[in-house]
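worker-3 :: picked LacI family transcriptional regulator
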Amino acid sequence: MAMSPILLYNGSIEQNFHESGEYVVTIKDIAQMAGVSFTTVSKALNGEPGVREETRNKILAIASKLNYVPNLAARRLVDRKSDSIGLIWPNKSGLFLYHLFEQFQIQAEKAGYSVMVALGNPTASVRTFMKHFVDTIVVWPSSENTSPEFIQAREAFQGTLLMFNSSPSPYYHTISIDRQEAIQQAVDHLAGLGHRKISFIGYNSEKITGFDRATQLLELEEHPDRLIFTPKNAAESWNRVADMLRKPKSQRPTALIVDSYIAMFKLLKLCKTYSLRIPEDFSLIAYDDVPELEEITDIAVTTVGPSVEHLASAALDILFELRQGHPAEVGHRHVKVASQLTVRGTTRPVSDYAL
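worker-3 :: tokens ->
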């Protein structure tokens, strides 16, 4: 009796057969053997930039050894699946969302997907994608995503559903952002520069929790302006920020963390009103890093937050795994994307603010 063909890699054995009984090598096999992501393998096999030459050569050698032959047409016939992604995006302005949307499109198209975009009503969008046989939908949450109508449409959808900016779910795949860790990075950086009197301006609960944890752990100074809560950028909250800025230098914090670039713009406007300068009068870190900041502001802002490239890659890695493997075996995936601190010109040692 003939033995079934097998693949041996990283000390494990995996079998992967076409319906005809013939062994089919997939990108998943190559990625596991090379110890890289599915996105990296796709880029290497398609001659795309962004892969180190050593890694590319290793991937190509493995693909050659395994006689890997991409056969997208045959795969579609067998799997009854398209290579289209329906992207449901909130119909609102925002530099970060714009850049994430753009980066997702770029990476998806390089990976062989076509992307259809829907703005606005997510329930109608799901139904429209279903009519066009789109079997993968990616969503950025909005208040409408919790409506009974959307939940009903979501449950009727039989394909792959992935939600950005979402906690783990038993119903769909999810990508979340570690905002607590991001603000902790910001506090750690400022504390490393000697700052003991730091203020946080914002309203996101995860970020406030990260600020509280970091300041308590580092035993930083308690002061009246330690936390200025700004729900939906309410005017009265920014009056409190203005009051803080008008205080004598000895009573002001030496460093500020704001929870969005929108809050940063409001802060900079107030600073101009009261003839204060950053970083001459205090250090500043803003959450979210968008390219326009360096062009709009007079000085390059130190930022913390997730990379849009990493967010897009995390989502597409999940979709690659599902496309190359067996969704029922994979289960509902959840990936939490870490943030990165980018130090620029708005932070300096506390000694520069000596009274």
